[in-house]
């Protein structure tokens, strides 16, 4: 209905043009950034022919190597920790009768989404600097802890969504067949929940990999991650090396997101 | 046994299972906020840190300054201009993203089901892409030798590049660019549930397009509009990376001003007090949002 009429009720004057413009504006800078990462010249402005030179330079730069390894170590730990605690919390807060304090738990879990990142960064700077002074430990542990915390809501949301879509009949059947609660969890609940857990872990990984502000404030000397390394490069003349690193991170993000959408789509 | 898997003392189990997450967030997210609140009432240390002496000075210095010689109190103009810039740029960002975001969300929501998923994915990619990368990308477009100026010179519209980078305009363009997906997604969610028969009914009753937009569409998708505006306004107000990269050193926003107190400024209590102000404003905005959302959309 309405489809074949000359006058389509779903179109509003100018809306399509503005929408197309918005998509162009959204992608033009990203595409430019990616194109210039293949620049054979030495500047981010002048095109000097196609080349993989800046990828090679970035790859062989020890500071970039160190930052890349650190970014990955932190992101892996943070997503494992955040996903583990988020899975438990999701099991504790879904598919059961509402209990006292449930709202408090929701607020706590979603807190990193509400508090401005700069405020959390400052708070962690103050807290961790006194812990560093008291214990003498200044390793990556602080960054892993901080990243784990702000990744919790991102891991929690897809796991909870998955749990809410699962009915309890399989678990009840398992219990009727004398499975212990642990067996039921291990062989029924967890396999059913796995797509949600994977999706949560992926989002947590991407969020950890992307973080700039909290990392910038919490890191000790020599603990740059890829984003804070790139931010530091701003003080010098920018070279297409930054474009090459950005493009690599971009590709990684798009790959993880595509996998995320495939996993979450399978549910239906 | 039936039904006992998840029913047994559900409150105690719920708390027990949530405990690891709560502990993690207490140590590395919520707990340290309490320390910030305490620090805002202390005296600054000689080089950095604090001295454990109670003082309301940091809170006083947010808005006022005291002359060192004759102790007269006046408004701290430098601080006020930073606050004003933050609020002004955040509001402008919200307006720009709304003007672009509403048609975009409408466009996506009115696509056929299959291509809709693709358009939505195209909005989601920038949303999840590193904020710093997107800020770099927009910087390369607006810099003096960048894409925009080169193109304008080529077509003969201007002869010398326009200085956009390191101005308030640059910060506005950058924030609108990085936060646009945050406006589109909630607007899309609202329009997606919209019943298009209402528009047909409106036209049948001889309403003009403008009347349909203002009297039918906008009131119904209002929760989505409020959500989008809050989701853009809140991170804009606390922005740090975008103003630092695109605004240069001069065009500070609150986030950069806070950082300054922990860096060169070396006034931790003032930085802590400013953080608390930002936190209170943001939580206030979120509170208004939950009020509006729960009143208008009891199921959402």
TrEMBL record, chain A:
Annotated TM spans: 12-38, 72-92, 104-128, 140-159, 188-209, 244-263
Stretches assigned to the ABC transmembrane type-1 domain: 68-263
Highest taxon, organism lineage: Bacteria
Membrane topology label: Multi-pass membrane protein
Major localization listed first in the record, in broad terms: membrane
Pfam family, one: BPD_transp_1
UniProt keyword annotations, A-Z: Cell inner membrane, Cell membrane, Membrane, Transmembrane, Transmembrane helix, Transport
Location relative to the cell: Cell inner membrane; Cell membrane
InterPro entries named in the record: Bact_Polyamine_Transport, MetI-like, MetI-like_sf
Entries under PANTHER family matching the protein: PUTRESCINE TRANSPORT SYSTEM PERMEASE PROTEIN POTI, SPERMIDINE_PUTRESCINE TRANSPORT SYSTEM PERMEASE PROTEIN POTC
Family: Belongs to the binding-protein-dependent transport system permease family. CysTW subfamily.
Function: Required for the activity of the bacterial periplasmic transport system of putrescine and spermidine.
Name used for this protein in its record: Spermidine/putrescine transport system permease protein PotC
Organism whose genome encodes this protein: Sedimentitalea xiamensis
TrEMBL record, chain B:
InterPro entries: MetI-like, MetI-like_sf
Annotated family: Belongs to the binding-protein-dependent transport system permease family. CysTW subfamily.
PANTHER family: INNER MEMBRANE ABC TRANSPORTER PERMEASE PROTEIN YDCU-RELATED, INNER MEMBRANE ABC TRANSPORTER PERMEASE PROTEIN YDCU-RELATED-RELATED
Protein name: ABC transporter permease
Keyword terms of this UniProt record: Cell membrane, Membrane, Transmembrane, Transmembrane helix, Transport
Organism this protein belongs to: Sedimentitalea xiamensis
SUPFAM superfamilies: MetI-like (SSF161098)
Regions that span the bilayer: 21-42, 89-110, 117-139, 170-191, 212-234, 268-289
Protein's membrane topology: Multi-pass membrane protein
UniProt xrefs under CDD domains: TM_PBP2 (cd06261)
Location in or out of the cell: Cell membrane
ABC transmembrane type-1 domain boundaries: 83-289
Transmembrane keyword on record: yes
């Amino acid at each position: 209905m309405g489809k074949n009429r000359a006058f389509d009720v779903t179109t509003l004057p100018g809306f399509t043009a503005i929408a197309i413009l918005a998509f162009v504006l959204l992608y033009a800078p990203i595409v430019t950034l990616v194109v210039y990462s293949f620049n054979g010249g030495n500047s981010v402005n002048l095109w000097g022919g196609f080349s993989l030179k800046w990828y090679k330079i970035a790859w062989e730069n020890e500071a970039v190597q160190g930052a890349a390894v650190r970014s990955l170590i932190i992101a892996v730990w943070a997503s494992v920790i955040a996903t583990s605690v988020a899975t438990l919390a999701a099991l504790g807060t879904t598919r059961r009768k509402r209990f006292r304090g449930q709202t408090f738990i929701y607020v706590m879990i979603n807190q990193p989404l509400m508090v401005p990142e700069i405020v959390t960064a400052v708070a962690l700077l103050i807290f961790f600097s006194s812990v560093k002074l008291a214990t003498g430990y200044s390793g990556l542990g602080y960054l892993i802890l901080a990243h784990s915390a702000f990744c919790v809501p991102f891991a929690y949301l897809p796991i909870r969504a998955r749990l809410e879509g699962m009915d309890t009949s399989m678990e009840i059947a398992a219990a009727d067949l004398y499975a212990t609660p642990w067996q039921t969890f291990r062989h029924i609940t967890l396999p059913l929940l796995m797509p949600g857990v994977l999706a949560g872990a992926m989002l947590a990984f991407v969020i950890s990999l992307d973080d700039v502000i909290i990392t910038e404030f919490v890191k000790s000397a020599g603990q740059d991650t890829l984003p804070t390394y790139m931010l530091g490069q701003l003080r010098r003349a920018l070279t297409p090396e930054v474009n090459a690193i950005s493009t690599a991170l971009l590709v990684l993000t798009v790959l993880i997101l595509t996998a995320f959408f495939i996993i979450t789509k399978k549910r239906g | 046994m039936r039904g006992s898997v998840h029913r047994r003392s559900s409150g105690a189990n719920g708390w027990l299972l949530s405990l690891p997450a709560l502990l993690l967030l207490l140590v590395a997210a919520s707990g340290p906020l309490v320390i910030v609140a305490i620090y805002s009432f202390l005296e600054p240390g000689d080089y950095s840190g604090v001295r454990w002496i109670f003082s309301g000075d940091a809170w006083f210095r947010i808005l006022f300054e005291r002359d060192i010689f004759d102790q007269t109190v006046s408004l701290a103009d430098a601080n006020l201009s930073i606050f004003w810039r933050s609020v002004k740029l955040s509001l402008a960002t919200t307006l720009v993203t709304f003007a672009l975001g509403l048609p975009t969300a409408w466009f996506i929501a009115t696509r056929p089901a299959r291509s809709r998923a693709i358009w939505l994915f195209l909005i989601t990619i920038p949303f999840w892409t590193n904020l710093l990368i997107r800020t770099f990308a927009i910087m390369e477009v607006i810099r003096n030798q960048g894409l925009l100026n080169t193109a304008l010179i080529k077509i003969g519209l201007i002869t010398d590049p326009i200085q956009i980078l390191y101005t308030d305009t640059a910060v506005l363009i950058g924030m609108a660019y990085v936060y646009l997906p945050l406006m589109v997604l909630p607007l899309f969610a609202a329009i997606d549930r919209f019943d298009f028969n209402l528009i047909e009914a409106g036209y049948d009753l001889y309403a003009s397009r403008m009347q349909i937009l203002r009297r039918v569409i906008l009131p119904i998708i209002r929760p989505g509009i409020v959500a989008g505006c809050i989701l853009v306004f809140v991170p804009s107000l606390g922005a740090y990376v975008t103003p630092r990269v695109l605004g240069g050193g001069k065009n500070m926003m609150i986030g950069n001003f806070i950082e300054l107190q922990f860096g060169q400024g070396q006034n931790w209590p003032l930085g802590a007090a400013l953080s608390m102000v930002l936190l209170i404003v943001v939580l206030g905005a979120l509170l208004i949002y939950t009020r509006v959302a729960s009143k208008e959309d009891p199921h959402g």
